[in-house]
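My hope is that you will study the protein record below before we discuss the fold together.
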Amino acid sequence: MLASGALTLIFCQRETSDCWVDGLSMWWESVKGQLGRVKRLVIYRDNGPKNAGNRTQWLRRRIEFADGVGLEIRLVYYPAYHSKYNPIEHCWGVLEQKWGGTLLVSLRVILQQARRMTWRGRSPVVKRLHGEYPDGVRLRGYPGRCLLTEAQPVRSL
């Protein structure tokens, strides 16, 4: 979600660290022209299992993405169990209401239902990642160029 309130929903067959970075890359390609000369991207995360700060595959792929597009990426993690402070979490309730009992039997049905919702008076951009996203991709140790710092609390709550 951009600061403007624009929402992009990207779906894939399986949620993995690779899926997260491919989705980030797809999103960046679609919005970078609107953002001028942005050099730093701040991503607010909920520290879910596929994009937690200790996931080596997530770190490696995120560093590759940042190097490839020339961005500094800063991750800000919300405290555990505080979804009420994370604006994107409110989006899921709206999406669930729009689904309203529809059987989500395929990705095609999910995409159709997501396109029907509105968020803050606007329809979201709904996209799909193609490809396989196997679970369990692991790396040994941290990527070589990973700077680890003490976690900083979110102060804008």
